[in-house]
Design a protein that fits this description.
Number of strands of chain B: 11
Oligomer: heterodimer
Number of strands of chain A: 11
Strand content of chain A: over 45%
Helix content of chain A: under 10%
Number of helices of chain A: 0
Radius of gyration of chain A: 13 Å
Shape of chain B: globular
Radius of gyration of chain B: 13 Å
Order of helices and strands of chain A: EEEEEEEEEEE
Largest interface: A-B, 22 and 18 residues
Protein backbone atom coordinates (compact mmCIF):
# COMPACT_ATOMS: atom_id res chain seq x y z
CA UNK A 1 0.00 0.00 0.00
CA UNK A 2 1.27 3.45 -0.92
CA UNK A 3 1.56 5.78 2.06
CA UNK A 4 0.72 9.43 1.42
CA UNK A 5 2.32 11.92 3.80
CA UNK A 6 1.09 15.51 3.96
CA UNK A 7 2.95 18.40 5.50
CA UNK A 8 2.61 20.46 7.48
CA UNK A 9 -0.23 19.10 9.58
CA UNK A 10 -1.38 22.66 10.26
CA UNK A 11 -0.59 25.79 8.28
CA UNK A 12 -1.33 29.22 9.74
CA UNK A 13 -1.77 31.83 7.02
CA UNK A 14 -3.12 35.36 6.87
CA UNK A 15 -5.88 36.19 4.38
CA UNK A 16 -4.36 37.31 1.08
CA UNK A 17 -1.16 35.35 1.61
CA UNK A 18 0.03 32.34 -0.36
CA UNK A 19 -0.33 28.83 1.07
CA UNK A 20 1.82 25.93 -0.06
CA UNK A 21 0.80 22.41 0.95
CA UNK A 22 2.92 19.33 0.33
CA UNK A 23 2.07 15.70 -0.32
CA UNK A 24 4.63 12.94 -0.62
CA UNK A 25 4.05 9.38 -1.84
CA UNK A 26 6.04 6.42 -0.56
CA UNK A 27 6.56 5.35 -4.19
CA UNK A 28 5.86 6.89 -7.56
CA UNK A 29 2.21 7.53 -8.42
CA UNK A 30 3.02 9.24 -11.72
CA UNK A 31 0.52 12.11 -12.05
CA UNK A 32 -2.36 10.11 -10.63
CA UNK A 33 -3.01 12.41 -7.71
CA UNK A 34 -6.04 14.39 -6.58
CA UNK A 35 -6.58 17.13 -3.99
CA UNK A 36 -9.76 17.67 -1.97
CA UNK A 37 -10.98 20.45 0.31
CA UNK A 38 -13.11 19.69 3.34
CA UNK A 39 -14.82 22.35 5.44
CA UNK A 40 -16.26 21.58 8.88
CA UNK A 41 -19.50 19.62 8.63
CA UNK A 42 -19.19 19.22 4.87
CA UNK A 43 -18.18 16.44 2.51
CA UNK A 44 -14.84 16.65 0.71
CA UNK A 45 -14.86 18.58 -2.56
CA UNK A 46 -12.60 17.76 -5.49
CA UNK A 47 -10.17 20.56 -6.32
CA UNK A 48 -7.47 19.04 -8.53
CA UNK A 49 -7.01 15.77 -10.42
CA UNK A 50 -4.18 14.52 -12.59
CA UNK A 51 -1.89 16.43 -10.20
CA UNK A 52 -2.53 19.76 -11.90
CA UNK A 53 -5.98 19.93 -13.56
CA UNK A 54 -8.54 22.04 -11.75
CA UNK A 55 -11.96 20.49 -11.35
CA UNK A 56 -15.01 22.25 -12.75
CA UNK A 57 -15.77 25.48 -10.94
CA UNK A 58 -12.56 25.62 -8.93
CA UNK A 59 -11.04 29.13 -8.82
CA UNK A 60 -7.74 29.78 -10.57
CA UNK A 61 -6.06 30.66 -7.26
CA UNK A 62 -5.83 26.90 -6.64
CA UNK A 63 -3.03 25.18 -8.51
CA UNK A 64 -1.41 21.78 -8.31
CA UNK A 65 2.01 20.62 -9.40
CA UNK A 66 4.38 17.70 -9.15
CA UNK A 67 4.72 14.13 -10.35
CA UNK A 68 6.23 10.91 -9.14
CA UNK A 69 6.46 11.20 -5.37
CA UNK A 70 6.37 14.94 -4.64
CA UNK A 71 3.28 17.11 -5.07
CA UNK A 72 2.24 20.62 -4.11
CA UNK A 73 -1.08 22.41 -3.79
CA UNK A 74 -0.74 26.17 -3.89
CA UNK A 75 -3.42 28.67 -2.98
CA UNK A 76 -2.13 31.91 -4.40
CA UNK A 77 -4.08 34.39 -2.25
CA UNK A 78 -6.08 32.91 0.58
CA UNK A 79 -9.72 33.92 0.84
CA UNK A 80 -11.82 33.49 3.97
CA UNK A 81 -13.65 30.56 2.40
CA UNK A 82 -10.37 28.67 1.82
CA UNK A 83 -9.71 27.94 5.48
CA UNK A 84 -10.32 24.20 5.61
CA UNK A 85 -8.61 20.81 5.65
CA UNK A 86 -6.98 19.62 2.44
CA UNK A 87 -6.35 15.99 1.52
CA UNK A 88 -4.32 14.42 -1.26
CA UNK A 89 -5.25 11.03 -2.75
CA UNK A 90 -3.28 8.74 -5.04
CA UNK A 91 -5.14 6.58 -7.52
CA UNK A 92 -2.19 5.05 -9.33
CA UNK A 93 -1.90 1.90 -7.25
CA UNK A 94 -4.28 -0.41 -5.44
CA UNK A 95 -5.72 0.47 -2.96
CA UNK A 96 -6.29 4.15 -3.49
CA UNK A 97 -4.98 5.98 -0.43
CA UNK A 98 -5.32 9.40 1.17
CA UNK A 99 -2.89 11.59 3.02
CA UNK A 100 -3.58 12.55 6.61
CA UNK A 101 -4.61 16.09 5.70
CA UNK A 102 -3.34 19.64 6.17
CA UNK A 103 -5.46 22.09 8.11
CA UNK A 104 -5.18 25.64 6.81
CA UNK A 105 -6.11 28.02 9.60
CA UNK A 106 -6.29 31.76 9.99
CA UNK A 107 -3.13 33.33 11.37
CA UNK B 1 -26.99 18.50 -10.94
CA UNK B 2 -25.30 15.37 -9.67
CA UNK B 3 -26.60 14.35 -6.25
CA UNK B 4 -25.72 11.53 -3.90
CA UNK B 5 -27.83 11.03 -0.79
CA UNK B 6 -26.80 8.46 1.81
CA UNK B 7 -29.06 6.95 4.43
CA UNK B 8 -29.18 4.12 6.92
CA UNK B 9 -26.67 5.22 9.52
CA UNK B 10 -27.69 4.50 13.13
CA UNK B 11 -26.31 3.44 16.48
CA UNK B 12 -25.65 -0.31 16.50
CA UNK B 13 -24.07 -2.68 19.00
CA UNK B 14 -20.74 -4.40 18.36
CA UNK B 15 -21.31 -7.54 16.31
CA UNK B 16 -24.43 -6.08 14.75
CA UNK B 17 -25.36 -5.48 11.12
CA UNK B 18 -26.47 -2.51 9.09
CA UNK B 19 -27.19 -1.65 5.47
CA UNK B 20 -26.35 1.77 4.08
CA UNK B 21 -27.94 3.14 0.94
CA UNK B 22 -26.95 5.87 -1.49
CA UNK B 23 -29.48 7.32 -3.93
CA UNK B 24 -27.92 8.83 -7.03
CA UNK B 25 -29.39 11.34 -9.46
CA UNK B 26 -28.31 13.77 -12.14
CA UNK B 27 -26.05 11.42 -14.08
CA UNK B 28 -26.14 8.08 -15.91
CA UNK B 29 -25.58 5.87 -12.89
CA UNK B 30 -24.57 2.71 -14.73
CA UNK B 31 -21.76 4.51 -16.56
CA UNK B 32 -19.74 4.90 -13.38
CA UNK B 33 -17.84 2.94 -10.77
CA UNK B 34 -19.02 3.89 -7.28
CA UNK B 35 -17.19 4.00 -3.96
CA UNK B 36 -17.72 4.10 -0.23
CA UNK B 37 -15.26 6.18 1.81
CA UNK B 38 -15.41 6.67 5.57
CA UNK B 39 -14.15 9.19 8.08
CA UNK B 40 -13.87 8.39 11.77
CA UNK B 41 -14.74 11.30 14.08
CA UNK B 42 -11.97 13.92 13.92
CA UNK B 43 -9.86 11.74 11.63
CA UNK B 44 -8.89 11.52 7.97
CA UNK B 45 -10.41 9.75 4.99
CA UNK B 46 -10.29 5.99 4.47
CA UNK B 47 -11.39 4.29 1.25
CA UNK B 48 -13.68 1.35 2.06
CA UNK B 49 -14.98 -0.31 -1.09
CA UNK B 50 -15.76 0.06 -4.77
CA UNK B 51 -18.08 -1.57 -7.27
CA UNK B 52 -17.72 -1.47 -11.02
CA UNK B 53 -20.37 0.07 -13.25
CA UNK B 54 -22.04 -3.29 -13.87
CA UNK B 55 -21.54 -4.73 -10.40
CA UNK B 56 -19.23 -7.38 -11.82
CA UNK B 57 -16.18 -6.32 -9.83
CA UNK B 58 -15.96 -5.38 -6.18
CA UNK B 59 -12.98 -4.50 -3.99
CA UNK B 60 -12.57 -3.87 -0.30
CA UNK B 61 -10.10 -2.37 2.12
CA UNK B 62 -8.39 -5.02 4.22
CA UNK B 63 -10.03 -3.52 7.32
CA UNK B 64 -13.51 -4.50 6.14
CA UNK B 65 -12.88 -7.47 3.85
CA UNK B 66 -15.09 -10.42 4.73
CA UNK B 67 -17.45 -8.26 6.80
CA UNK B 68 -18.79 -5.65 4.35
CA UNK B 69 -20.49 -6.23 1.00
CA UNK B 70 -21.00 -3.55 -1.62
CA UNK B 71 -23.76 -3.83 -4.19
CA UNK B 72 -25.74 -1.70 -6.59
CA UNK B 73 -29.10 -1.69 -8.33
CA UNK B 74 -28.73 0.20 -11.59
CA UNK B 75 -32.50 0.06 -12.19
CA UNK B 76 -32.95 2.09 -9.01
CA UNK B 77 -29.83 4.28 -9.32
CA UNK B 78 -28.80 3.04 -5.91
CA UNK B 79 -25.63 1.93 -4.14
CA UNK B 80 -25.54 -0.16 -0.99
CA UNK B 81 -23.13 -1.25 1.72
CA UNK B 82 -24.07 -4.24 3.86
CA UNK B 83 -22.05 -4.10 7.06
CA UNK B 84 -21.83 -7.20 9.26
CA UNK B 85 -19.87 -8.08 12.39
CA UNK B 86 -19.51 -4.40 13.19
CA UNK B 87 -16.70 -3.25 15.46
CA UNK B 88 -16.25 -0.08 17.46
CA UNK B 89 -13.54 0.97 15.03
CA UNK B 90 -16.12 1.02 12.22
CA UNK B 91 -17.67 4.11 13.82
CA UNK B 92 -17.47 6.79 11.14
CA UNK B 93 -19.27 9.02 8.71
CA UNK B 94 -19.75 6.95 5.58
CA UNK B 95 -19.71 8.76 2.25
CA UNK B 96 -20.68 7.43 -1.12
CA UNK B 97 -18.72 8.92 -3.98
CA UNK B 98 -18.96 8.82 -7.73
CA UNK B 99 -15.83 7.73 -9.54
CA UNK B 100 -14.35 9.71 -12.41
CA UNK B 101 -15.58 7.12 -14.91
CA UNK B 102 -16.16 3.41 -15.42
CA UNK B 103 -12.53 2.68 -14.55
CA UNK B 104 -11.69 1.49 -11.07
CA UNK B 105 -8.79 3.87 -10.53
CA UNK B 106 -9.58 7.54 -10.38
CA UNK B 107 -10.69 10.45 -8.31
CA UNK B 108 -13.96 10.91 -6.46
CA UNK B 109 -16.42 13.56 -7.58
CA UNK B 110 -18.82 14.35 -6.10
CA UNK B 111 -19.34 12.98 -2.60
CA UNK B 112 -22.62 12.63 -0.75
CA UNK B 113 -23.18 14.37 2.57
CA UNK B 114 -22.49 11.17 4.52
CA UNK B 115 -24.39 9.00 6.96
CA UNK B 116 -23.15 8.40 10.49
CA UNK B 117 -22.60 4.88 11.78
CA UNK B 118 -21.93 4.56 15.49
CA UNK B 119 -20.92 1.16 16.88
CA UNK B 120 -21.32 1.19 20.62
CA UNK B 121 -22.73 -0.91 23.42
Amino acid sequence: EIVMTQSPATLSVSPGERATLSCRASQSVSSNLAWYQQKPGQAPRLLIYGASTRATGIPARFSGSGSGTEFTLTISSLQSEDFAVYYCQQYNNWPQTFGGGTKVEIK
Amino acid sequence: EVQLVESGGVVVQPGGSLRLSCAASGFTFDDYTMHWVRQAPGKGLEWVSLISWDGGSTYYADSVKGRFTISRDNSKNSLYLQMNSLRTEDTALYYCAKASGPQQHGWFDPWGQGTLVTVSS
